[in-house]
Write a structure and sequence with these properties.
The chain has 320 residues and is α/β, with parallel strands linked by helices. The protein contains eleven helices and 15 strands. The chain has two domains: 214 residues, P-loop containing nucleotide triphosphate hydrolases (Rossmann fold, 3-Layer(aba) Sandwich); 83 residues. β9 and β10 form a beta hairpin. α4 runs antiparallel to α5. The protein is globular. It starts with a strand and ends in a 6-residue tail after the last helix.
Length: 320
């Protein structure tokens, strides 16, 4: 039995179709990423999944319980950990008092190890917390009762890089011990690093569900090459597979042409430039092999922006 099963889940507010016939499953023991830009409908799906709002149409099951049946959903929630995108705690309470309240409601199996890992300042009141400390306290309350399923909505907001790395290692170890994790994010790199599968939502509609390896192949990297001397544009266009959205720059680094304007023969006047920027879905070894005979001033390879992945592989907003 899957941990989450959604079938035709729809939420229509009249002027906004927040979720449009969303269907997917999350298998037990996997990390499933729910990826989309801000406002795509990720939080709406989560809120229907947990019974905070009712679907206009469709339905689903979580841990085998019907999400439209209040009694069944209450039973499921005892085995679920949930961290909203903006955790709200009593600002006059200390972190320790918050934990004591949660322990009284749902139990406490793991708070000691979680406190050692995430280290929120328990003896300060929540109103004194930074955004990151609120998030760390939320992570402790989410996992402290040792749930079967954890649902996280944008879980790393406000965390510093070291804490994000600690969170990633923790999530992977939890998956390895059998926990199911479902988390939403608008950060492509975060999903790439953590997930087994990913569902992509845009404008309320599920675009695709695919293994993370397929997303890695699709999204590629943004490459910027700056050479000491002009480089013929043909080395990228003819010698490499997986070059997209090529832009070329002159000696001063300004962009003077796009791929359509850079198709001249490598020896033709105006076809050699010092700076190239493109999205690359090929292998880095092939890129380096092509560039090895040129003296480079700079070579950067970065994550492709989520927006460009949508535009390249899933169409424009007009098509949504």
């Amino acid at each position: 039995m899957a941990a989450i099963e959604l079938e035709g889940l729809t939420k229509d507010y009249g002027d906004v179709l927040a979720n449009d016939d969303v269907s997917f499953t999350v298998e037990r023991g996997e990390i499933f990423g729910y990826l989309g830009p801000n406002g795509a409908g990720k939080t709406t799906t989560i809120r229907m999944l947990l019974g905070f709002i009712s679907p206009t149409a469709g339905g689903g099951r979580v841990l085998g319980q019907d999400i439209t049946d209040e009694r069944e959903l209450i039973e499921a929630k005892r085995r679920i950990g949930y961290l909203p995108d903006d955790p709200q705690f009593d600002e006059s309470a200390t972190g320790r008092e918050i934990l004591e309240l949660h322990a009284a409601i749902k139990g406490d199996e793991r708070s000691d190890e979680l406190l050692e890992l995430f280290d929120p300042p328990l003896d300060r009141t929540v109103r004194e917390y930074s955004h990151g400390n609120v998030r760390k306290l939320g992570l402790v309350t989410t996992f402290m009762h040792d749930p079967e399923l954890v649902i996280l909505d944008e879980p790393t907001g406000g965390l510093d890089p070291l804490m994000k790395q600690r969170f990633a290692e923790f999530v992977r170890s939890e998956r390895d011990r059998g926990l199911t994790l479902f988390f939403s994010s608008h950060i492509l790199g975060e999903v790439r690093r953590l997930c087994d599968r990913v569902g992509i939502i845009r404008s309320g509609k599920l675009v695709t569900v695919e293994p993370i390896d397929a997303l890695l192949d699709r999204s590629g990297k943004v490459v910027r090459v700056v050479a000491a001397e002009p480089v013929p544009s043909s080395i990228f266009e003819r010698n490499l597979e997986g070059v997209h959205d090529l832009e070329v720059g002159g000696a001063d680094g300004t962009v003077v042409a796009t791929a359509e304007g850079a198709r001249a023969d490598g020896d033709a006047p105006g076809s050699a430039y010092r700076e190239y920027t493109f999205t690359f879905t090929g292998t880095v070894d092939d890129l380096l092999a092509v560039l090895e005979e040129y003296e480079l001033i700079d070579l950067t390879i970065e994550e492709a922006p989520l927006e460009s992945v949508f535009l390249r592989f899933y169409g424009s907003e007009k098509d949504a």
